[in-house]
Amino acid sequence: MSALLWALIALPLGAGTVLGLGGRRVNAVAPLAATVVAAVTLGLAVAAALARPGVEAPLFTGVRAGLRVDGLSAVMVITVAAVTTAVLAFSTAEFGRDENRGRFFGVMLLFAGAMLVTVTATTLPLLLMAWELMGATSWALIGYWWRQPHRAGAADTAFLTTRTADLGLYLAAGAAMAGGVGSLRLDALPHTGGAWLHVVSAGVVVAALGKSAQLPFSFWLSRAMEGPSPVSALLHSATMVAAGAYLLLRLHPLLTATDWAGPLVAWTGAVSALALGLVAAAQRDLKQLLAASTSAQLGFMVLAAGSRGVAAGTVQLVAHAAVKSGLFLAAGAWLTVLGTKQLPALSGAARGRPLVGGAFAVGALTLAGLPPLSLWAAKDEVLAAARAESPGLYAVGLAAGAVSAVYSVKALWYVTRPLPAGPAAGHGTERSAGRGTGHLARWAHLPLWVLTAAAAVLGVLALPGPADWLRTLLGARGEPSPHPWEAGVSAVLALAAVAATWWWLSRTPRTERAAVPWAQDWLHLERAAHALLVRPVMGLARALAAFDDRVVDGAVRQLTRGGSALSRLAGRVDDGGLDAAVGAVASGARRLGSWARRPQTGLLHQYYAQAVVGFALLTLIVLLVR
Amino acid sequence: MLTVVTFLPLLACAVLALLPRTVGDRACVLVWIGTAAADLALVVALWAGFDPYGGMQYEQRVRWMPSAGVSYHVGVDGLSLPLVAMVCVLFLAVAVYSLRETRRVRAAAGLFLFLQTVSVGLFVALDLILFFVFFDLSIVGMYFVIAGWGHGERARAAALKFFLYTFTGSLALLLGFIGLYLAADPHTFDLVELTRSNPLAGQGLYAGLVLLAVGVGLAVKTPTVPLHTWLPPAHTDAPAAGSAILAGVLLKMGTYGFVRIAMPLLPGSWRQYALVFVVVGVVSVVYGALVALAQTDFKRMIAYTSVNHMGYVVLAVGAAGTLVGSDAQARSLAVTGAVVQMVSHGLLTGALFLLTGVLYDRGSTYAIGSYSGLAAHTPRFAAATGVAAFASLGLPGFSGFIAEFQIFTGSLASQATATAIALLGILLTAALFLRALRAIFLGPPRLPAGIPTTGIVDLRPSEAAATVPLLGLALIIGVVPRFLLDVVEPAGRAVTELVAR
């Protein structure tokens, strides 16, 4: 049993390392090998979901590393493995022989493997390890075309932003240890004692919001669009951003253990869903629109986790993974074929390639929340949980749902325009080559349609029978189901928003549509981060470096200079003082000696005279003393 | 056995000196590599026969200066054995790297072999005077490495600064040792006996002054802010092999001194002044990272990250001395993390400095701004440096994470604010490494002025053989750390118990 679980994580991680290190040398086999590995991993994931294995090994003093597949993990491992397989299968057509395929497919497998560890880890250190490894591999994927500086910069932004949030997990681990949870088991975190419980909750919430690109961290997701489309297809669906939502769903008992964490998370999710939805609606670049919509849709999962809707959040996560990966693959296909991702330039893209266009249309309508497609049902489950929590949350969520219909239809409207006369004018190209290749392998449509079909029908999970089964699976019985009127309200709202948007886009010429700078620039979040954090920190760093050179080292230099000055002084004292004194003593002695030689003249009469004087003096002294 | 491990390199050094002049440079390096490999094999044998719960092992004690209470006393426990192993691995890597050395090869081989004896000797020494002798000889040896093989005139100035600064520190250390000697009854410099008798228990100010002297001596060597300014010039102007040993081995002599001498011998004062060490540690972490972030010289930047990484160790040992709020598990985690950090930093920073040497060899400059898109010319070199950088910024899967996670988790309970601030260090190191990687290796290819594209060669086999195994070892520790932690944990626990008595 445990071998199954080890294999599930070791296979993608091991194969990914081998392919990644192989680089160009394994270019020929990398796409096929990676797809096969992903498919086998999917098989292992299904087996693991049925068998529910668990393994443990000692890690640190009193802390173990554990992996286990429970209900939630079962859903997650299948989702992750399935989306990875589809995306990798599609990518085999994306990368030409002149590119480093080994690196791409290897790192993609590592990325997916890290996500698999994240969703099966039972202790915080192991989860954190996989969590950060996912961040690092996302850096390598976003910066895949590293010769272009802006892509490398985008990779740095993504890694640093998510790592900033990751500090929360480090903090949570220490706080849990301090609060008496020495095992650092995820299921024991709600039992953290005293004020430390608040620190643990705060740390986990910040880390999850950062990874899920919720406010105020959303901007890294916009920059992450610099990566190849298949990367976006994986990063925006079942991995990376989904990890944040997963963590909140996994640790929902922790959110209810304090009275502030649940509402905070729910409101952040609802506001993100609405605000990033508006951002998405303002975009003119298809990939940027989809990116903002990811943040917005993740907001519904975060809202669900914060309002105790574990089953609702899970359905939303799975359905959104299928929808978004399919949409990104379609967008990527146009990019490959047409060489552009600008919405106006994509006019008629769907008509030109009906197989891709059809898949995109189904995906977009699902994203719009139209009945009876999956996200409509999933969102109603989320909104039911939100309504049970607070009417305000429900209202914001409903509005966010309407906005999602607006941006989805906006994308769909552009790509279904009648074909323009000339070939698509390419701007905003993804590759240095400029124009697209004009070619997409026929069989590459298969994974795209598998994902699209899943996206359309996964709504069955919200039907009463399957929904009960899922709640039992997730151990989330007793969560609210949407009333029929709620489903009706959201359906009507979505339909109305779709119709209004379509009508407005068709009526208003492009030149008259007002640009909304703050929404187009993602609420200026990145600029704010630069102004408030990056620039001050760099300024501080430079100031401290100067301080280090001039003051700290300067003091040492002054000290040595003082030392040499002191030694010079000592030298002067030595030469001019001590040595001079010794010289003076010597010369004095010499002078005394020369005086003493004077009387010794060798003349007898002078000796007699000296004796007489001396005798007279003696007599005088004797007389005086008496 | 330990004596053989310690003095085998010195023996080889003597043999090299006596070999006739006709023996070529290459043969000298081969002798050096052979000796380093044999020494490493002996350490592996020591490790295989080591009992983690057996306390001090492989002890040897010979009378040296009995009237002064000095003896030749060596032994290893879970604190020193991993460091001895790391030292031997690093010296072997440096020997392999030096296959391409062309300047005064025989002298270089002899000097590094001498340094290896000194370094191993320090980590196995169980007598304060023996420790001090090796401590000072390491300064002497490194002085000649920097002055003799460094980059020109500036290297001699940097070597002099290094020598005077750290030598002054060692005098403070000696003062502290004499203070310990005088307090013990009967007078002795023996570490084991001093640990047992705890001579300065309840001695108040006197014990505090002894800790001050020992602390300053070790802090200079570690180095911690503000006693660190000898480090950047010494590294910038030292040869790559010298930098690798200086950062990888010599800095550990300071941090090792904290866990081997300061904590067990002065437990009362350590607890009393733990906050001082915590503050110094946190300041080193954040200040070192921030100053590194502003550097424009790649090697100088890595030198400052050493200040940051050693700061974590000082924070951890300080937190391990704070009993309030923490339990035995947390303190043991902190000390274990500190020791793992010493091993990890030795491997990673050694690899980074050797790779920096490759950069200088190709482009004749360390200036970050002179390079761009180097990955296009040297993909293997870029990959190795990238892996080393990510490992150094604490990416899970590498040894740095194993160390830093334990340090943070173990320190937060007793020193919450300080540890929370220190957490920023891993973010800053991520920023500075990504910034340097992007500037040097990514973007459009551009080489320093005057360097022809044809002159750029990717990582050579000898350079790869010197650096990749270091990274591989860091990876093994990062993925399956138990083989190391099984050895360190009992010793770490013993230190925390000694501090708490």
TrEMBL record, chain A:
<feature type="transmembrane region" description="Helical">
    <location>
        <begin position="487"/>
        <end position="505"/>
    </location>
</feature>
<dbReference type="InterPro" id="IPR001516">
    <property type="entry name" value="Proton_antipo_N"/>
</dbReference>
<dbReference type="InterPro" id="IPR001750">
    <property type="entry name" value="ND/Mrp_TM"/>
</dbReference>
<feature type="transmembrane region" description="Helical">
    <location>
        <begin position="231"/>
        <end position="249"/>
    </location>
</feature>
<dbReference type="Pfam" id="PF00662">
    <property type="entry name" value="Proton_antipo_N"/>
</dbReference>
<keyword id="KW-0472">Membrane</keyword>
<feature type="transmembrane region" description="Helical">
    <location>
        <begin position="192"/>
        <end position="210"/>
    </location>
</feature>
<feature type="transmembrane region" description="Helical">
    <location>
        <begin position="289"/>
        <end position="311"/>
    </location>
</feature>
<feature type="transmembrane region" description="Helical">
    <location>
        <begin position="30"/>
        <end position="51"/>
    </location>
</feature>
<feature type="transmembrane region" description="Helical">
    <location>
        <begin position="607"/>
        <end position="625"/>
    </location>
</feature>
<feature type="domain" description="NADH:quinone oxidoreductase/Mrp antiporter transmembrane">
    <location>
        <begin position="122"/>
        <end position="393"/>
    </location>
</feature>
<dbReference type="Pfam" id="PF00361">
    <property type="entry name" value="Proton_antipo_M"/>
</dbReference>
<feature type="transmembrane region" description="Helical">
    <location>
        <begin position="448"/>
        <end position="467"/>
    </location>
</feature>
<feature type="transmembrane region" description="Helical">
    <location>
        <begin position="167"/>
        <end position="186"/>
    </location>
</feature>
<keyword id="KW-0812">Transmembrane</keyword>
<protein>
    <submittedName>
        <fullName>NADH-quinone oxidoreductase subunit L</fullName>
    </submittedName>
</protein>
<feature type="domain" description="NADH-Ubiquinone oxidoreductase (complex I) chain 5 N-terminal">
    <location>
        <begin position="64"/>
        <end position="105"/>
    </location>
</feature>
<feature type="transmembrane region" description="Helical">
    <location>
        <begin position="352"/>
        <end position="373"/>
    </location>
</feature>
<feature type="transmembrane region" description="Helical">
    <location>
        <begin position="393"/>
        <end position="413"/>
    </location>
</feature>
<feature type="transmembrane region" description="Helical">
    <location>
        <begin position="104"/>
        <end position="128"/>
    </location>
</feature>
<feature type="transmembrane region" description="Helical">
    <location>
        <begin position="261"/>
        <end position="282"/>
    </location>
</feature>
<keyword id="KW-1133">Transmembrane helix</keyword>
Automatic annotation (TrEMBL), chain B:
<keyword id="KW-1133">Transmembrane helix</keyword>
<feature type="transmembrane region" description="Helical">
    <location>
        <begin position="338"/>
        <end position="360"/>
    </location>
</feature>
<comment type="similarity">
    <text>Belongs to the complex I subunit 4 family.</text>
</comment>
<feature type="transmembrane region" description="Helical">
    <location>
        <begin position="306"/>
        <end position="326"/>
    </location>
</feature>
<feature type="transmembrane region" description="Helical">
    <location>
        <begin position="381"/>
        <end position="403"/>
    </location>
</feature>
<feature type="transmembrane region" description="Helical">
    <location>
        <begin position="273"/>
        <end position="294"/>
    </location>
</feature>
<feature type="transmembrane region" description="Helical">
    <location>
        <begin position="6"/>
        <end position="23"/>
    </location>
</feature>
<feature type="transmembrane region" description="Helical">
    <location>
        <begin position="240"/>
        <end position="261"/>
    </location>
</feature>
<feature type="transmembrane region" description="Helical">
    <location>
        <begin position="204"/>
        <end position="220"/>
    </location>
</feature>
<feature type="transmembrane region" description="Helical">
    <location>
        <begin position="107"/>
        <end position="125"/>
    </location>
</feature>
<feature type="transmembrane region" description="Helical">
    <location>
        <begin position="30"/>
        <end position="50"/>
    </location>
</feature>
<feature type="transmembrane region" description="Helical">
    <location>
        <begin position="131"/>
        <end position="150"/>
    </location>
</feature>
<dbReference type="InterPro" id="IPR001750">
    <property type="entry name" value="ND/Mrp_TM"/>
</dbReference>
<feature type="transmembrane region" description="Helical">
    <location>
        <begin position="70"/>
        <end position="95"/>
    </location>
</feature>
<dbReference type="Pfam" id="PF00361">
    <property type="entry name" value="Proton_antipo_M"/>
</dbReference>
<feature type="transmembrane region" description="Helical">
    <location>
        <begin position="162"/>
        <end position="184"/>
    </location>
</feature>
<dbReference type="InterPro" id="IPR010227">
    <property type="entry name" value="NADH_Q_OxRdtase_chainM/4"/>
</dbReference>
<feature type="domain" description="NADH:quinone oxidoreductase/Mrp antiporter transmembrane">
    <location>
        <begin position="125"/>
        <end position="428"/>
    </location>
</feature>
<dbReference type="InterPro" id="IPR003918">
    <property type="entry name" value="NADH_UbQ_OxRdtase"/>
</dbReference>
<keyword id="KW-0812">Transmembrane</keyword>
<protein>
    <submittedName>
        <fullName>NADH-quinone oxidoreductase subunit M</fullName>
        <ecNumber>1.6.5.-</ecNumber>
    </submittedName>
</protein>
<dbReference type="GO" id="GO:0016491">
    <property type="term" value="F:oxidoreductase activity"/>
</dbReference>
